[in-house]
Amino acid sequence: MFVQESGGSPKYDVVFPVLHGAIGEDGTIQGFLEILGLPYIGSGVKASACALHKPTAKLLFDSIKLPCVLGITVNKDEKINDIIVNILENIGDDVVIKPCDQGSALGVKFAQGKEKIATAIQNTLTTSSEAIIEKRIIGREITIGVLEDHDQIKALPIVEVITPMGQWYDFEHRYTDGASQHIVPAQLSRDLYDRASEIAIKAHQILGCKDLSRSDFIITETSEIYILETNTMPGMTPTSLYPDAALAAGISFTELVSQLVDNAVDRAGK
After folding, report:
1. Global pTM?
2. Which of 10, 21, 75, 128 has the most CB atoms lying inside 10 A of its own CB?
């Protein structure tokens, strides 16, 4: 949002950094905006960096006993044979490999068996310095948006993500129109619904997020809840989950953006 003065440079009022992954969501652009003294929507440097770096986020979640998937972090300096032994002994042979510093499910791989796990990890570590390897959990995929309204933090209606049989909510299914179905509100028992919403709010708070966040979960057949990660800047595209959840709460996209802008302006004025 900016005002163009005649013959002069644009004067920016508020920046909406709708960017994902490295540079955009890891605190880098937020730090740049801090240096420039420009108000912006969303989490600050620390929260952005902690949320995007998956091992750090898991440590913070563990510190307040949020239910996380069992996992280990590895880096490219470790020997692959040592990594595999560690995984097989402590995680199992059916895993998910994730770059530690990416968003939008980029680089996520599923692997089962020693050889395939080793290959997937080696491929991941050619482009990322670290990877997190987690036990694969089968279950329903849900996501919960959190919205701040001044000093009030509330969970938006829970969205369940349905993908075609044998598929998962990867980059293609996130950003391709019609590739996934969003059920909102998700059909969960009241107890499960409330527990998941509480976890999303606690994740938002322990990370130090501001204005908005969206946490992703897996729920098993036995009603076990696992938080996977928290996004400090959820997608705002026509296929994105966060605007759908807001709309289900009676907040139009225009109203949502206006509220977020007001939050940033109020924060800058304090």
Report:
1. 0.87
2. 128
